[in-house]
Structures are given as structure tokens and as C-alpha cells.
Write a structure and sequence with these properties.
Helices cover about 20% and strands about 35% of the residues. It has about 475 residues and is an alpha/beta fold. The chain has three domains: about 260 residues, Glycosidases (TIM Barrel), CATH 3.20.20.80; about 90 residues, Sandwich (Immunoglobulin-like); about 100 residues, Macroglobulin (MG2) domain (Immunoglobulin-like), CATH 2.60.40. The strands form five sheets. A six-stranded parallel sheet has the order 1-2-3-4-5-6, with helices on one face. Strands 8-14-13-10-11 form a five-stranded mixed sheet, with no helix packed on it. The chain has a four-stranded antiparallel sheet with strand order 18-17-20-21, with no helix packed on it. A hairpin with a 4-residue loop joins strand 13 and strand 14. The termini are far apart. The relative contact order is 0.07. GO terms for molecular function: hydrolase activity, hydrolyzing O-glycosyl compounds. It holds the Pfam family Big_7.
Length: about 475
């Protein structure tokens, strides 16, 4: 049995509002000791106040760890003295309030609880257990079902990874009305309907089963608490008219046969990243070509972003295993020497991966003469041709500076005549698609006139258009 004790009489708090805590926390602690002695062996878990982290249940002062910690510490000793085997729970908290837990540890209250309690049936919750968002600091959101992972991470960081987390309220309203409370009042649905309520119940207990430290999951609540179709009235497994919802059958099945689901609970795995160019031995000066791909097996890839020395210079929406590339044409502001290239990939669930590479900018004016080479490859249909190529410095990982010119030429009256032309950055691979409708002998001429220490180069590929 789990009992939550909250509220205080006027003689203890000085207020007619029972949600104002007592002026002397020890009075509350003594009362908890009395209750623990009276119900020793019959109550397994004591929750100290209900959702003390929010103004809905904590009045008279600003709710927070500093206000709550004295009440918790005053209760722990008397309860354990009366019933050593009883569990003392910090909270339960509103959502997975890991920052509140951090505050308790900072105040030295880590030795005053055996478990942390959370309530995930927050106002107008409509997202399922596997759906989540991230806080600005990258942690799973407090009001996500899976946010209990962050509560546990805080506990583990303070040596309490072995302590359990009790989810003494979880649930989804079956109402089909609009939200009437909280920050989303009037902006979203208030519930998920009966079918999704049952489905989310199954998913929730499946999720909890994957984490050994999640020892308690109590559905809120058994029966609707009113006839009107409102959010708070429609959390029940049993309707107001005493008929059973599908969620009743779902919970009954779990209680008899256990968790039958095999799918993963939430995509919490970040993407994997491959930096294709540059490499760790690449040297560049004026112009830097970058290319990468990423993939995610869970929720699929969303975007890929590039940074140089901490400053973002380009980002792309991207699919799994799609190569995205970019040429940073002006690198004059990049200092000579070692710089850090960072690639950040984000999947559709919001998971982020980062891969970094040290690259080197050199002053090309100080380099000896470098021999360059152009490679060309032609492909395409009879009338739509593509030439792909690359200017390189064989035997090195240098990225040449300057530009090269790519020309489509047709042989006419004994000479090659330029028909189409385009300049390309020397540091990057290039492609040039051209529609050719005139029959005859054609060729692609790529010419690099050299830049600094990089020598001239030229390449030709011929074709016949019929």
C-alpha cells in the first residue's frame, strides 16, 4: 500500500488553507512517525506531501527544494524509527522533475528518502509513452513519460542509482474535449479517447518493465470521478456508469499474462555520422570542401549541420545515408594551424549526435610547387549528359585553391567551338549537367590555370551525339 500524506491543520500552519505546510516541519515529522507506527507492516510506502514542486498543492510560500527539504528530512527519521522497512518517498513530483531532485541533493537531503516519486498524468497529456521532447540542455523533457530516465540519471550521479523511482500516478484521459487548464488551455485536446487510452496503458507498462529501477506504476484512476465529460473526470478504467473501458481489459491482460509487447520504447538512440571529407590529414587554405552522411534506424534522420571552430556555417535537411556536402569558399578568417570541424546530426525524435575532426589550414604561399591533376567521368542519356570531376594534388591531401573552368565544346569546321561553360571551385568535386541536342562530335574540356603553388592542369573527355 502507498499512502500520500499532505496538508496541515490551521493550528500548525497558521492558515485556514490546508495546503500551507506547517510552520514547524518537525510537527509534520512527528505526525508521520505516529502514522508509521500505527500502520507498521500495512503501509509499504509513504509519500511526503503531494506534488510539492508546484503551486497547485504547495501554498503559502514558493514551491521548491528549499521549501520542501525540511519537511522531507523531518519525516524520514520518525518513519524509519517506527517502521524500518517502510519506504520514504521524496515527492511525488509533478512530471519527472529532475531539477527539483537535483535541488534536494544540493541541500543535503539525499539521505532523507528511499525513493523518488513522480506523477506523469500531467495536464492534458496527449502524447504516448514513447513520444518525448528535449529540454534546452539536451535532457529528456520533464513532462515526457520517459523523463524518469533523467530523474534516475540525477540519482545515479549522486550515488543513488540503486534507489527506485515510483510512478504513483500515470494515465491518460479518455475525454474528447479540448484542454481547459494549464499553459495549453484551449490550444490542444484534453485527452486521447478510449482506444488510445488502452493502447497507451499497454505501452506505458511495457516501457516501465524495461527499467528495473521503476518499481511502481499506479494507474490514475480506477473509475471516473464525475458524470460530466471533462479531462479530470475521464481518467478511469471504469466509466461513470460503471461499465468498463478497453483500458480495463488491457490492464487485466497485463496483470495475468505480463507485458506482451516486444517493440522498443521510444527512440533514444542518436544517429551515426560518417565524415566523408575532409580527412584527418587534409590540408587546406582558401576553400574547404566538406561532405558527410548520417543514418538513424529508429525515427529516421532529420538534419545534418556543419561547424568550424564552434561556428555553424551550413545545415541541411537530410535522409538516411544521404551525402550532404558544401564548399566553404572563404576561409580567410580561419586561423592557420589546427581547426575543429564538427558535424551534428539530428533524428526526427530530436536525438543528437556529434562527430569532430581536427583539420589543418596551411599558408599555400609557403608551399613548394604542387602538381595537380583533373579527373573526369561522363554519364547520362543521349541528349542529357553529366560530367563529374575532381581537381587533386596526387600523393597529398591538399585542397587546391582557385577555380577551374569546365567547357562543353562541339567540333565544327575543323576546330573545337565553346558552346557551354561554367566555373567550379578547385577545392571541391564538381558536376555539370548539360542538355545537348545538336548531333556531332563533342568533348568536355576542364582547365585549371593554377593558383599559388598549384600547377596548371587540363583534362578532356570526348563523346559523339547522334
Amino acid at each position: 500500500m502507498v499512502l500520500v500524506v499532505h496538508g496541515s491543520p490551521q493550528w500548525a500552519s497558521g492558515s485556514s488553507d490546508y495546503l500551507v505546510p506547517p510552520a514547524n516541519p518537525q510537527k509534520f515529522g512527528d505526525f508521520m512517525g505516529f502514522l508509521a507506527a500505527r500502520y507498521a507492516g500495512r503501509v509499504q510506502s509513504w509519500e511526503i506531501w503531494n506534488e510539492p514542486d508546484e503551486v497547485a498543492f504547495w501554498h503559502g510560500s514558493t514551491p521548491g527544494p528549499a521549501a520542501y527539504a525540511p519537511l522531507l528530512t523531518a519525516s524520514y527519521g520518525p518513519i524509519k524509527a517506527a517502521d524500518p522497512g517502510a519506504q520514504v518517498v521524496a515527492g511525488p513530483l509533478t512530471g519527472n522533475n529532475f531539477k527539483f531532485v537535483e535541488g534536494l541533493y544540493a541541500l543535503g537531503a539525499g539521505n532523507s528518502f528511499d525513493a523518488v516519486g513522480v506523477h506523469t498524468d500531467t495536464a492534458c497529456l496527449v502524447k504516448g509513452p514513447s513520444q518525448f521532447y528535449f529540454e534546452p540542455d539536451g535532457r529528456i523533457g520533464r513532462f515526457s513519460f520517459l523523463g524518469f530516465r533523467e530523474v534516475h540519471a540525477v540519482m545515479a550521479a549522486h550515488g543513488d542509482g540503486g534507489k527506485p523511482i515510483t510512478m504513483s500516478e500515470l494515465g491518460w484521459s479518455a475525454t474528447t474535449t479540448r484542454c481547459a487548464r494549464g499553459g495549453n488551455a484551449g490550444l490542444k485536446d484534453a485527452g486521447v479517447g478510449e482506444t488510445n487510452q488502452a493502447r497507451y496503458l499497454e505501452q506505458a507498462y511495457h516501457c516501465l518493465a524495461a527499467y528495473p529501477y521503476m518499481t511502481t506504476g499506479i494507474w490514475f484512476n480506477e473509475r471516473d470521478v464525475g458524470a460530466a465529460d471533462t479531462e479530470l473526470n475521464r481518467y478511469g478504467l471504469i466509466r461513470w456508469d460503471a461499465t468498463k473501458r478497453p483500458s480495463w481489459d488491457s490492464l487485466q491482460t497485463i496483470s495475468i499474462y505480463g507485458d506482451q509487447m516486444t517493440s522498443s520504447c521510444g527512440d533514444l538512440t542518436p544517429p551515426t555520422i560518417k565524415i566523408l571529407e575532409p580527412t584527418a590529414v587534409t590540408r587546406f587554405d582558401r576553400g574547404l570542401y566538406v561532405a558527410a552522411s548520417a543514418s538513424d534506424s529508429g525515427s529516421k534522420l532529420s538534419s545534418v549541420h556543419f561547424y568550424l571552430n564552434g561556428k555553424k556555417f551550413i545545415g541541411f535537411a537530410a535522409r538516411n545515408d544521404q551525402t550532404v556536402s558544401f564548399t566553404l569558399k572563404d576561409t580567410s578568417a580561419v586561423p592557420y594551424g589546427v581547426s575543429t570541424l564538427k558535424v551534428r546530426a539530428v533524428d526526427k525524435a530530436g536525438n543528437t549526435a556529434i562527430k569532430e575532426l581536427a583539420i589543418t589550414r596551411v599558408d599555400s604561399r609557403e608551399l613548394p610547387r604542387q602538381t595537380t591533376r583533373i579527373s573526369l567521368h561522363l554519364s547520362g542519356s543521349q541528349s542529357l549528359k553529366t560530367v563529374r570531376g575532381r581537381l587533386t594534388v596526387p600523393g597529398t591531401e591538399l585542397m587546391p585553391t582557385g577555380k577551374l573552368m569546365v567547357r562543353w565544346q562541339r567540333y565544327s569546321r575543323g576546330r573545337w567551338v565553346n558552346r557551354y561553360a561554367r566555373s567550379k571551385i578547385g577545392a571541391a568535386p564538381f558536376s555539370y549537367v548539360q542538355k545537348i541536342s545538336t548531333p556531332g562530335r563533342w568533348r568536355v574540356l576542364a582547365r585549371y590555370d593554377g593558383s599559388g603553388p598549384f600547377s596548371r592542369a587540363q583534362a578532356v573527355e570526348s563523346l559523339r551525339v547522334r
